[in-house]
C-alpha cells in the first residue's frame, strides 16, 4: 500500500513550503526513480507533466456542445471516449464509489496518533516513513481500509504547525456515549470546545473537541455504527451550486438539507448511503459568505471509482476542474485523477481494482 500513499501525496503540494513566508532552500538533482519524481509534486514544483514523466502528456480535446472527447498522445495509455451529460449522469449513478481517506497534515504525528487511539478509539492501521522525501504517513480508522474510511495523516519533517483556515469545519465521530468520551478527552489533557448537549433544534447529543493540531471533531451520540468516522464538514459559497455539483459529478445523494435563518446558515448532507452507516460530506453555507481561506492543513478526500477516465469527464462536464489528468501513475500503475470542486476543495478518485491491489 506504500505506493498508493505516495500517489495521494503527489497530489498534495507541501503546504508548509507553499505557504510559509520563508520557504527552505530546495536543491534537486535528476531523479532516476519514481519516488523522487513524485516528490516534485509533493513539493509543489510546477513542471510540465511530459517533462516530469518523460512522456507526452494526455491531451484533452475541446468540448463540443455538451460532449467532451478525449484523445491521447505519447506512451500513456488512456481510454478514448465521448461523453454527453446524459451518459455522464448515467455513469456516475451506477459507478461503484465510496469515500476512502480524509487526508490532512499534522505537526506532531506521535501525539496525534496517541490522541486518536486513546481518546477516540481509532486503530493505527499502518504507518510509513519516507526519509528521502522528509515525510511520514499514518493511516487510522475503525475498520479495514477495504471497507472503511480512514484518516491519512501526513507529517512533514520539521513542520509543527499548519494554518487550518476558515473553510474547513470539522470531522465527525459517532460514539455511543458522548459524555463519557468527553470525560476521557479531558482526562487525557484534550481540549473540549463544546460540552455535551442536544444539537440546535434537535435531540441528538453532540460535543465538540479539538485535536492536538487544532482540527475540530464533532462527537455524535449514536448506537453502534459500521462507520464511526462518519463525516467531514466543509464550508461552501453557494449551497445549491455545491449540491448540484456533488449530485451530478460525484453521484452523491442529497441525504438532508436544513436552513437555519436564526443562525444564518444552510446545511446539506451528501453521501453514498444513509448517514448512520456511511461517511458523508456535510456542506455548510453561511449567509452572505462566498469565499473562504482553505488554509494549508486539510488536504483532500480520496474516493473510489470503477473508471477514473469517465469520472474525470463527468467532473469536467459538471463544473469541476481537473488538476491531475486521469491515468496510471508512473512506476506503480495505480490509476487516479484529481479535481477541484467549485469552491476549490480537492478530491481524488482512485481505481477500485488498483486500490485493492495496493492493499495486498
UniProtKB/TrEMBL annotation:
Q: Which UniProt keywords apply?
A: Lyase, Metal-binding, Repeat, Zinc
Q: What is its EC number?
A: 4.4.1.5
- Identify the pathway: Secondary metabolite metabolism; methylglyoxal degradation; (R)-lactate from methylglyoxal: step 1/2
Residues annotated to bind Zn(2+): 152, 170, 218
Q: Give any Gene Ontology cellular component.
A: cytoplasm
Q: What is an annotated GO biological process for this record, any one?
A: methylglyoxal catabolic process to D-lactate via S-lactoyl-glutathione
- The residue ranges of the VOC domain are 98-222, 228-352
Q: What is an example of a GO molecular function annotated in this UniProt entry?
A: lactoylglutathione lyase activity
* Cofactor binding mode and count: Binds 1 zinc ion per subunit. In the homodimer, two zinc ions are bound between subunits.
Q: Which residues form the signal peptide?
A: none
**Per the entry, which co-factors are needed?**
Zn(2+)
What Gene3D superfamilies does UniProt report for this protein, alphabetically? 2,3-Dihydroxybiphenyl 1,2-Dioxygenase, domain 1 (3.10.180.10)
What role is this protein assigned? Catalyzes the conversion of hemimercaptal, formed from methylglyoxal and glutathione, to S-lactoylglutathione.
The similarity comment for this entry is: Belongs to the glyoxalase I family.
NCBIfam families membership:
glyox_I (TIGR00068)
- The protein, known as: lactoylglutathione lyase
State the organism named in the record: Castanea mollissima
Amino acid at each position: 500500500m506504500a505506493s498508493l500513499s505516495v500517489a495521494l501525496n503527489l497530489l498534495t503540494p507541501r503546504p508548509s513550503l507553499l505557504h510559509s513566508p520563508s520557504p527552505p532552500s530546495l536543491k534537486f538533482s535528476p531523479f532516476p526513480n519514481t519516488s523522487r519524481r513524485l516528490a516534485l509534486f509533493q513539493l509543489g514544483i510546477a513542471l510540465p507533466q511530459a517533462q516530469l514523466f518523460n512522456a507526452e502528456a494526455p491531451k484533452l480535446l475541446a468540448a463540443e456542445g455538451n460532449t467532451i472527447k478525449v484523445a491521447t498522445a505519447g506512451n500513456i495509455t488512456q481510454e478514448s471516449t465521448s461523453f454527453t451529460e446524459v451518459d455522464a449522469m448515467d455513469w456516475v449513478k451506477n459507478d461503484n464509489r465510496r469515500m476512502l481517506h480524509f487526508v490532512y497534515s499534522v505537526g506532531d504525528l506521535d501525539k496525534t496518533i496517541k490522541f486518536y487511539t486513546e481518546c477516540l478509539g481509532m486503530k493505527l492501521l499502518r504507518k510509513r516513513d519516507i526519509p528521502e522525501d522528509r515525510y511520514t504517513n499514518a493511516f487510522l480508522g475503525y475498520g479495514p481500509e477495504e471497507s472503511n474510511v480512514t484518516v491519512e495523516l501526513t507529517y512533514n519533517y520539521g513542520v509543527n504547525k499548519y494554518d487550518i483556515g476558515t473553510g474547513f469545519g470539522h470531522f465527525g465521530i459517532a460514539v455511543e456515549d458522548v459524555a463519557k468520551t468527553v470525560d476521557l478527552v479531558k482526562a487525557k489533557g484534550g481540549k473540549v470546545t463544546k460540552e455535551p448537549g442536544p444539537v440546535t433544534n434537535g435531540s441528538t447529543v453532540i460535543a465538540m473537541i479539538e485535536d492536538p493540531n487544532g482540527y475540530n471533531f464533532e462527537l455524535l451520540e449514536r448506537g453502534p455504527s459500521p462507520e464511526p468516522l462518519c463525516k467531514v464538514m466543509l464550508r461552501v459559497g453557494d449551497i445549491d451550486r455545491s449540491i448540484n455539483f456533488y449530485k451530478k459529478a460525484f453521484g452523491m445523494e442529497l441525504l438532508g438539507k436544513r436552513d437555519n435563518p436564526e443562525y444564518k446558515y444552510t446545511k446539506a448532507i451528501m453521501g453514498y448511503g444513509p448517514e448512520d452507516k456511511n461517511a458523508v460530506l456535510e456542506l455548510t453555507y453561511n449567509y452572505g459568505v462566498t469565499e473562504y481561506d482553505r488554509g494549508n492543513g486539510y488536504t483532500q478526500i480520496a474516493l473510489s471509482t470503477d473508471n477514473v477516465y469517465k469520472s474525470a469527464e463527468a467532473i469536467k462536464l459538471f463544473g469541476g476542474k481537473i488538476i491531475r489528468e486521469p491515468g496510471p501513475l508512473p512506476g506503480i500503475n495505480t490509476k487516479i485523477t484529481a479535481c477541484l470542486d467549485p469552491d476549490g476543495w480537492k478530491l481524488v478518485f482512485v481505481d477500485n481494482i488498483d486500490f485493492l491491489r495496493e492493499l495486498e
